[in-house]
C-alpha cells in the first residue's frame, strides 16, 4: 500500500462517490485529510465515518468567497498543503439546443471555474512547501464529447487545458499537476443517467463493466505519490478502455 504519512491533503467534493473514496484512501494511508461538501454538517458526518485523520468542512467551489474562506481556514488547520484533489463536479445534461444559460453557467462554474479557484489557492502554500501535487478529476467525456453533455464536456475539456498549462507554470517548483479521466464509474452521478444512456455506454466498455470509485482513487493516489515525481501535465484515463 502507498504511504502518505502526515501528508496534508484536501479533497473537494468528498461527501460521496469518487471524492469519498479518495479521502478514504488517503486517510487509510496515513495522511491528514480535509474533505469538503456544500453542507458543513454532512461533510463533518462523512469525515467522522472514516478511519484516520479526516476533517469535514464546508466549501462551495462555485463561490469565490467560499473558496477563499475555506482555504484560509483549511491551511491553518493542516499547517500547509501537500496534495489538492479538485474532484467536485456536477452534471446538468441536455442537448445543446435545449441548454439554458444557467445549465451552462452552473456546470462550468463548478467543474471548471471551481477547479481553477481551488488550484489558484493551492499554489502559494505548495511553493512555500517546496513541492506539491494537484490532481484534477476530469472525465473521458472531456476527451470525446457526448451528446446531451455539451456543457459537461466543455467543462472537463477546459479542465484539461487548465491542468496542462498550470503543470508547465509550476514544474520548476517541484509541483506536479495532473488529471484523471474516469469513464463510467458506479456513483450517484452515473446512477442519475437515464437507463438507456447508461446501457449504451456500458455496452461500449471493453472491460465489460463500470469502474468503482476505489479504482479512480488508486489512480489519484499514484499521481500524488513520490513514485509519480516525473509525471506532470498528464491525463490518466481510468475507463476500462472506453476512450482508447
Ligand atoms: P457525485 O455526484 O457522487 O459527488 C459529487 C461530489 O461533488 C459530492 O461530494 C458533492 O458534495 C460535491 N460537489 C458538487 N457541487 C459542489 C460544489 N459547488 N462545491 C463543492 N462540492 C461540490 O459525483 P461523482 O463522485 O460521480 O463524481 C466526482 C467527480 O468525478 C466529478 O468531477 C465528476 O464529474 C467526475 N466523474 C465522474 C464519473 C462517473 O461516472 N461517476 C465519470 C467521469 C468523471 P455535496 O453535494 O455534499 O456538496
CATH topology (fold) name: Rossmann fold
The low-pLDDT segments are none
- Tell me, what is the CATH class? Alpha Beta
Number of domains: 1
The outline comes out as globular
Q: How does the helix and strand content classify structurally?
A: alpha/beta
- Give the spatial strand order of the biggest sheet: 3-2-1-4-5-6-7
Q: What's the rounded overall pLDDT mean?
A: 97
**Rounded Rg:** 17 Å
Please give the alpha-carbon distance between the first and last residues: 28 Å
N-to-C SSE string, H for helix and E for strand: EHEHEHEHEHHEHHHE
Main sheet specs: 7 strands, parallel
CATH structural architecture: 3-Layer(aba) Sandwich
Total DSSP E strands? 7
Bound molecules: NADPH dihydro-nicotinamide-adenine-dinucleotide phosphate
Q: How many DSSP H or I helices?
A: 9
Strand content: 15-25%
CATH superfamily: NAD(P)-binding Rossmann-like Domain
What is the oligomeric state here?
A: single chain
Helix percent reads 40-55%
Report on the architecture of this protein.
- 46% of the residues are buried.
- The protein is α/β, with parallel strands linked by helices.
- β1, α1 (17-28) and β2 (32-37) form a beta-alpha-beta unit.
- A seven-stranded parallel beta sheet has the order 3-2-1-4-5-6-7, with helices on both faces.
- The protein has one domain (8-238): NAD(P)-binding Rossmann-like Domain (Rossmann fold), CATH 3.40.50.
- The protein has nine helices and seven strands, in the order βαβαβαβαβααβαααβ.
- α1 (17-28) packs across α9 (213-224), α3 (64-78) runs parallel beside α4 (101-128) and α4 (101-128) packs parallel to α6 (150-170).
- The protein binds NADPH dihydro-nicotinamide-adenine-dinucleotide phosphate.
- The site of NADPH dihydro-nicotinamide-adenine-dinucleotide phosphate (NDP) has 32 residues, from α1, β2, α4 and α7.
Amino acid at each position: 500500500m502507498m504511504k502518505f504519512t502526515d501528508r496534508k491533503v484536501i479533497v473537494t467534493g468528498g461527501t460521496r462517490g469518487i471524492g469519498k473514496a479518495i479521502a478514504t484512501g488517503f486517510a487509510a494511508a496515513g495522511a491528514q485529510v480535509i474533505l469538503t461538501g456544500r453542507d458543513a454538517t454532512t461533510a463533518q458526518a462523512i469525515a467522522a465515518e472514516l478511519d484516520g485523520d479526516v476533517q469535514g468542512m464546508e466549501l462551495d467551489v462555485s463561490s469565490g468567497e467560499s473558496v477563499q474562506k475555506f482555504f484560509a481556514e483549511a491551511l491553518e488547520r493542516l499547517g500547509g498543503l501537500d496534495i489538492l484533489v479538485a474532484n467536485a463536479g456536477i452534471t446538468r445534461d441536455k442537448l445543446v439546443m435545449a441548454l439554458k444559460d444557467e445549465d451552462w453557467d452552473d456546470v462550468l462554474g463548478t467543474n471548471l471555474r471551481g477547479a481553477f479557484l481551488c488550484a489558484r489557492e493551492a499554489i502559494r502554500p505548495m511553493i512555500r512547501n517546496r513541492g506539491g501535487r494537484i490532481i484534477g478529476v476530469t472525465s473521458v467525456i472531456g476527451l470525446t464529447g457526448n451528446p446531451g453533455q455539451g456543457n459537461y464536456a466543455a467543462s472537463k475539456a477546459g479542465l484539461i487545458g487548465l491542468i496542462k498549462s498550470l503543470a508547465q507554470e509550476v514544474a520548476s517548483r517541484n509541483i506536479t499537476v495532473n488529471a484523471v479521466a474516469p469513464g463510467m464509474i458506479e456513483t450517484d452521478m452515473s446512477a442519475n443517467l437515464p437507463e438507456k444512456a447508461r446501457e449504451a455506454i456500458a455496452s461500449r466498455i471493453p472491460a465489460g463493466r463500470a469502474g468503482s470509485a476505489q479504482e479512480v482513487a488508486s489512480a489519484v493516489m499514484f499521481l500524488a505519490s513520490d513514485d509519480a515525481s516525473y509525471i506532470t501535465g498528464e491525463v490518466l484515463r481510468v475507463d476500462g478502455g472506453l476512450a482508447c
